[in-house]
Amino acid sequence: MTLIAATHAHARAEDHKAEWNQVENVKGAAKRLGEMQRRQGSEAVLKFLEACYKTHMLAENFTEGLEGCMAQDYMLSQMLAVIYAKVPADKLAEMKAPSSEVIARAMRGRFQAIFQQYKFTQEQADNLKKAVDVHGMPVFINLVFPNTGKKKEGAEGPAGKDGSGADMDSPGSGDGDGKGVRIPKPEGEPK
Fold first, then answer.
1. Which of 169, 142, 184, 12 is nearest to 82 (CA)?
2. Cβ count near 60 (within 10 Å)
3. Domain segments of the chain: what residues?
4. CA nearest 183: which of 127, 134, 137?
């Protein structure tokens, strides 16, 4: 995905108080993403996200729409990174699919560009991550993998795998453990 660079100065994200409910925005973004993923697949979702970023990054201030793009990007990147981490490198090459590390690095690059353009603070990045992890990811995973977490017949405890064999207990962890992606720290913020 490519991001377009803005040519004019932007107000700090913290100076523009959000006029929307972040949790509801993230849940709505998760629902739309899950429905699109089921209907059209990852390739269509990636094209949609590219257009989403191109459109919403034209705005002078950080918007509800751009927050939705970021939430969807993070959820999709998490899911793909978890799944592709389980696929051998030669199979990924044969499929012409990126590794989980490439997926994570690309998403971090997109987020860094947004953080820089809209002068995000660490608190804002943390709040977005938490909203997606807690409120968005469960909605998305339940739509894409409706049997995740349901007991399989004759099994003890919740099923940790969906039909594709992907262990979906990991999304949202973002620990940098190779099983997911993490939201980067905005530049200029303490590490």
1. 169
2. 12
3. 29-144
4. 127
Closest CA to 121 of 3, 8, 25, 17: 17
- Which two three-digit tokens encode residue 89? 């490198």
Joined together, the tokens standing for residue 35 give 């429905």
Residue 173 has pLDDT above 60, yes or no: no
Tokens of 150: 């349901």
Regarding pTM above 0.85, the answer is no
Q: How many Cα atoms sit within 13 Å of 15 on the Cβ side? A: 7
CA–centroid distance for 71 within its chain: 5
Question: 188's torsion region: left (phi>0), alpha (psi -120 to 50) or beta?
Answer: left
- Residue 129: what residue type? K
Q: Give 92-115 pLDDT, tens digit per residue.
A: 999 999 999 999 999 999 999 999
Residues 54-98: tens digit of each pLDDT: 999 999 999 999 999 999 999 999 999 999 999 999 999 999 999
